[in-house]
């Protein structure tokens, strides 16, 4: 059973019963019948499903018994040991059943592959792993174990295979992923804690709910590009050479930038492209509710990074750490730049205060339908924060702290830069801006309103050619 993995060697596929049960073993479920003409892969898959179901059922029983005995969930290390023990027992039992039925046992090569496949299924990301392994999958949704959809790059939603044998097994899978991605505190997923938000090992973000919905549901947002440069964004068609040159100079000039757009439009990926311009030794503090940016994972590009994540309170209401608290603490950690993964609430006030008090070069993302809508969203968050800032005061902070607002949208099904606004000043309930890059009919944003002299001077000091903005977007060679 411990034979090393080897490529498939031609041999008879494992025998299966024709009615789903072995007549020689009454009441003992055997793999169902293989389709007519099924080859080794199909027959082997039936065995994998059978062994996996048997181990999953036994594992669920043992973990629940452990919880009843000890009052808490089985630790990840012990759970892995139990899983491997149950897998060995299941394979041994299956071999005994085949022999008792007068059938040949699995060959060492097949058994090794079955062992590895089932172990990966139960100890990796289970039925999610094949979808996570696909480079073209951007989002995954499971409305229960067997109602699964994926959104592929450049396309829409497509149905996918079930990711678990049952809803109960799906819940167990989510619990296992939560335990494996723990950062020290307990991450529960049960009726008392029916929602869960975490990062998977590949950087994808998983959100799950149970008990508050008719069936457990999972939504996964994937990041196909863990690293990104401005040149790569140009190659992807997200922006053109003019926009890249302007924003590169803006980052070098330590301008404060807010990246806006709807969910899934690529704000985090775009932020990575902006940060690729930041010198490698600058000190970066990142603040997120779930780790996504991952700059600390690439020390060759950014050697001095501290990544911090907000934490929800426990069931007793204790131990919570908000982004607002993290932001105020981050400002004491001698940052060159502070990056907020996404502004969603109270943290907007300390962020605007920090930007207006000299923490230049900071960046964040925000959910907004347009570049102009960003200012309304910031004012709304500030009004709801404990400080209860009025709109006029918030706008003053925006005018003092924010230099550029970048908006991403979709044009002809492509994710592109649609707008760049320069923040000029504030007058009571209005933020005065110049939309220096505006939407174009069929691609990234092109030249719009003239920028202020101050902005042009700062950009020019860091390598940008102001003449590029004086060409109409449809003039041949305008991005040369």
Could you characterize what this model shows?
By secondary structure, the chain is α/β, with parallel strands linked by helices. The chain has 13 helices and 15 strands. It has helices spanning 40-70, 76-100, 108-123, 129-132, 167-180, 230-236, 241-252, 267-275, 323-330, 348-356, 373-384, 391-401, 453-460; strands spanning 137-143, 148-152, 157-160, 195-199, 205-209, 217-221, 257-261, 284-288, 305-309, 337-343, 363-367, 404-411, 414-427, 430-438, 446-447. The strands form two sheets. The protein has a nine-stranded mixed β-sheet, sandwiched between helices. Strand 14 and strand 15 (446-447) form a beta hairpin.
State the end-to-end CA separation: 63 Å
What would you call the quaternary organization?
single chain
Radius of gyration: 27 Å
Parts with pLDDT < 50 across at least 5 consecutive residues: 1-40, 473-480
The count of helical stretches stands at 13
- Residue share in β-strands: 15-25%
Number of strand elements:
15
Strand order across the largest sheet: 9-8-10-11-7-12-13-14-15
Q: How confident is the prediction overall: mean pLDDT?
A: 82
In one word, what is the shape?
elongated
Q: What is the percent of helical residues?
A: 25-40%
**Helices and strands: which structural class?**
alpha/beta
H and E order: HHHHEEEHEEEHHEHEEHEHEHHEEEEH
Largest sheet: 9 strands, mixed
């Amino acid at each position: 059973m411990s034979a090393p993995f080897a490529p498939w060697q031609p041999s008879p596929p494992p025998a299966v019963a024709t009615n789903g049960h072995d007549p020689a073993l009454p009441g003992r479920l055997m793999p169902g019948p293989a389709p007519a003409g099924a080859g080794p892969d199909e027959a082997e898959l039936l065995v994998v499903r059978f062994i996996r179901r048997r181990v999953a059922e036994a594992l669920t029983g043992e973990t629940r018994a452990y919880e009843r005995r000890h009052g808490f969930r089985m630790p990840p290390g012990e759970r892995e040991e139990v899983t491997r023990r149950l897998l060995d027992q299941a394979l041994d039992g299956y071999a005994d059943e085949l022999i008792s039925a007068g059938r040949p046992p699995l060959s060492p090569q097949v058994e090794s592959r079955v062992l590895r496949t089932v172990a990966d299924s139960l100890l990796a990301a289970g039925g999610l792993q094949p979808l996570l392994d696909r480079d073209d999958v951007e989002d995954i949704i499971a409305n229960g174990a067997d109602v699964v959809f994926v959104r592929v790059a450049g396309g829409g939603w497509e149905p996918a295979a079930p990711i678990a044998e049952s809803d109960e097994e799906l819940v167990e899978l989510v619990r296992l992923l939560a335990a494996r991605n723990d950062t020290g505190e307990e991450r529960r997923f049960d009726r008392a804690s029916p929602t869960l938000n975490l990062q998977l090992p590949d950087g994808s973000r998983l959100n799950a709910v149970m008990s508050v919905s008719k069936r457990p549901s999972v939504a996964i947002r994937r990041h196909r590009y863990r690293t990104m440069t401005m040149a790569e964004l140009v190659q992807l068609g997200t922006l053109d050479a003019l926009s890249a040159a302007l924003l590169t100079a803006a980052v070098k000039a330590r301008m404060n930038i807010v990246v806006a757009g709807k969910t899934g439009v690529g704000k985090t990926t775009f932020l990575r492209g902006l940060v690729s311009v930041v010198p490698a030794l600058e000190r970066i503090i990142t603040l997120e509710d779930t780790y996504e940016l991952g700059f600390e994972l690439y020390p060759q590009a950014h050697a001095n990074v501290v990544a911090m994540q907000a934490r929800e309170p426990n069931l007793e209401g204790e131990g919570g750490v908000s982004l607002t608290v993290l932001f105020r603490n981050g400002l004491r950690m001698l940052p060159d730049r502070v990056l907020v993964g996404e502004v969603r609430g109270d943290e907007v006030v300390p962020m605007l205060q920090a930007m207006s008090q000299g923490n230049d070069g900071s960046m964040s993302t925000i959910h907004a339908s347009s570049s102009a809508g960003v200012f309304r969203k910031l004012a709304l968050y500030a009004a709801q924060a404990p400080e209860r800032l009025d709109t006029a005061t918030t706008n003053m902070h925006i005018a003092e702290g924010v230099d550029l607002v970048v908006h991403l949208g979709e044009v002809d099904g492509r994710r592109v830069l649609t707008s760049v606004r320069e923040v000029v000043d504030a007058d009571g309930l209005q933020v005065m801006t110049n939309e220096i890059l505006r939407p174009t009919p069929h691609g990234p944003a092109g030249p719009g309103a003239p920028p202020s002299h101050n902005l042009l001077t700062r950009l020019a000091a860091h390598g940008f050619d102001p003449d590029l903005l004086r060409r109409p977007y449809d003039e041949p060679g305008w991005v040369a």
